[in-house]
Structure formats: C-alpha cells, structure tokens
Design goal:
InterPro entries: Hint_dom_N, Hint_dom_sf, Intein_N. By secondary structure, this protein is of the alpha+beta class. The protein is built from 4 helices and 17 strands.
C-alpha cells in the first residue's frame, strides 16, 4: 500500500512538473510553436541514438535532436548500487526548425536498457499528451528509480527557468541556445587572409581566415578556433547577389550574372540592417563581399532568393576569434 501511494505521488508530481516546465520553455520561444502530433511523438520515440554521450546533435526521420542546454546526462547512484542517467534533448522539426517538445531518455547502468519519454510542447495535440501520460503510468512505474529520477530532472530544470529564465553554466553564465542549422556545404569556399580560398571541409583549427570588422569597416584576420560538423540531410537556402552599381532600375538585367550565395537558412550574415538569418534575407537587402581592388568590401544587392536550392549530407561551421569570416567572399557571422 505504501509503495503504491509513493508511485502515485511520483506519477502526479512528474505529470504536473512536466506541464509547468513545458509551458515555461515554450512561453520563452521567440517563434510560434508547432504542436506535436501523436504520429510525431511515436516517430521521435522510435529514434535510436547510438551513443548517448557523444551524439548530442543529429538529424533523424525528419527531426533534429539537440542536447537540452548542452547539458551532460543527469547521473544518479542509488543505494542499490545501480547508476541511473537521464538525457534531455530538444526536439525540432527538421523542415522548419520549429520546436516540438523534449525527449527524455532514461538509462539503467546495470542493464544498459534505455526508455524514451517524449514530452510534447504545451500546444501539442491532446492525443500526444495522453500518450506521454500513458508512458509515465505503464512504463515509468515498472522500472524502480525511473520516476524519481525523471521527476527530479524536470523539477530541477523548471526551477532553473523560474529563477533565471535559462539554464546556467558552471561558471554562472547563462547559456543561450539559438536556432539550429548554422552551416555550409562541404565545398563552400572560405576566404583566406591572402585572398585565396579553401573548401570549408578542408579548413583546420588554427588556420587564419579573412574576417571583417563591421564597426571599423575594415578587413582583418582571425584564427579558426573550432569547427562544427554535422551529418544528416540538410537543405540549403540561396540568395543571388549583384553589385549595387550594376543593378538596373527595374532589376531585370545585369551586365554580369548574379552570384549565388548559399547556406542553411538560419546561418547569420551581415546585412545593411545588421545581423540576419539567410532565410530571412529579402530581395533588396544588401550583403557585403570582398573586393580585391579596394582591399575591402563592397555592398551587393540581393536580387533574388530561393529556398531548397540543394540538399547535402554533411555541413560545416567555423568558430573564429573575431566572430566573422568570409564564405564565397561574402561576410558571414559566427552562429
């Protein structure tokens, strides 16, 4: 009787905590939330993660899974000697990177068995929420220690949101996770300091690339400090650029063919109105490209935009000391 009451108490706590936690998370989202459907919940639940400690970001079955706030696993060691872990992933729709919910994965350290719990967003379909509650009831209660660990993790994350609005890093600084897919195709040419280029897939940490200081409006140099690589199925967005002096009044003809610049839709570029995701760039916006004759940059006008230009299997992103570099001689910004 006592054990049954404890199980019921943990079930109620977990369900209530989850609801409040998801409301807080999605209330802070800057964009509209696409509600998770029951079919999507089932599809996310079926995703197999090969290495929970290393696979912190990947695409699978039309979804992006990204480790929640870049956190490692929550680890618990009970008096029975069994180590239990909880891994949290944010779930996004790969097509438009809208947040759908959370994936919590419980792992039993003795058997290495894992049990996934897909936690829908606050605006999800009622059937998706019913499925999650069923999992808590019929899966969670059969595994000793699962309900208490899951309740603790969700409560801890909710408390962090309530007190600070975001998770905190160990040094006390807030970690902000932006949108995803800040990347380029393997053949994207990165402009080096001498004006030559190298495929982004061939760039190494320590390479010095050409950079641009928007405040002083001067070219500079910057070493590459990190390279991010992601494998999956990635769609590229494109914009066609023409020098401003070559754009006719009616935008119908140019002495030279416009230059195509492409990247994933969320990669930030420098425009005349400041930082902007490539997918948000519109015809008429100005981007900036390297001009060898000026040893500086020139403004190029966006004359056309296009979605889903091509798909690639691997994408790359650079992190630089300056926070900016040039791809295809076009100024881009670190994510």
């Amino acid at each position: 009787m006592k054990n049954n009451l404890l199980s019921l108490f943990l079930f109620i706590c977990c369900a209530v905590t989850t609801q409040v936690f998801t409301q807080r998370v999605w209330a802070q989202a800057a964009s509209a939330v696409t509600g998770m459907t029951l079919d999507q919940l089932k599809a996310v639940k079926a995703i197999k993660i090969a290495n929970l400690d290393k696979d912190t970001y990947f695409k699978s079955g039309g979804f992006i899974l990204d480790r929640y706030e870049e956190r490692p696993a929550y680890v618990f060691t009970y008096s029975d000697g069994i180590t239990r872990k909880i891994y949290l992933y944010k779930v996004f729709a790969a097509e438009d990177t809208k947040e759908l919910g959370l994936l919590a994965i419980y792992q039993n350290g003795k058997t290495n068995e894992t049990k996934p719990f897909v936690i829908p967003g606050a605006s999800a379909d009622r059937k998706a929420w019913d499925a999650y509650i069923d999992d808590l009831k019929y899966v969670g209660e059969k595994e000793p220690g699962l309900m208490s660990t899951l309740t603790f993790v969700l409560s801890r994350e909710m408390a962090s949101l309530l007190t600070g609005g975001s998770a905190k890093s160990e040094d006390g600084g807030a970690k902000k996770k932006e949108e995803y897919n800040f990347c380029f195709a393997p053949d994207a040419p990165v402009t080096l300091l001498d004006g030559s280029s190298k495929k982004i897939s061939e760039v190494s940490v320590g390479d010095v690339v050409m950079s641009y200081d928007a405040k002083t409006k001067t070219l500079t140099s910057s070493p590459v400090t990190q390279i991010d690589t992601h494998a999956g199925e990635f769609m590229l967005t494109g914009v066609w650029l023409a020098p401003t002096e070559e754009v006719t009044a009616d935008n119908r003809a140019w002495p030279n063919a416009p230059t195509l610049f492409e990247a994933t839709a969320n990669h930030p570029v420098l425009t005349n109105s400041g930082r902007k995701a490539l997918g948000d760039v519109k015809a008429g916006d100005l981007l900036y490209r390297y001009d060898a004759a000026l040893n500086g940059v020139s403004a190029y006008k966006v004359v056309r935009t296009g979605q889903a230009i091509r798909a690639v299997k691997t994408v790359y992103n650079l992190v630089t000391e300056s926070g900016a570099y040039l791809v295809g001689e076009t100024v881009v910004l670190d994510k």
